[in-house]
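Appendix B. Chain record.
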Amino acid sequence: MGQVLKRAVPHAVLLAYVAAVLFPFVFVVFSLLKGSNVDIATNPFGLPKEWHLENYVEAWVKAKIGVYFFNSVYLSFTSALAGALLAAATAFALSG
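Structure tokens predicted for this chain:
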């Protein structure tokens, strides 16, 4: 029984951590699917009665999320490429 408990405790801690990390994300997704702020205020943690997917389209267009997404992808790619090139150059210099 001691081995089972020894293995279960870290899993329980990790499960609690994952729940704490994912909860805000799920809350935001459910809030975006609700029709109005009244729905969010009256039932903040529940599933929406009517699913409004057009909120995503409206947010994407009005907030220019496409531009920000492209900028994030571009910066991530160039940073990763620069890091890989610098690491390769450093490895070459240190190995000689």
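Further analysis of this model is presented in Appendix C.
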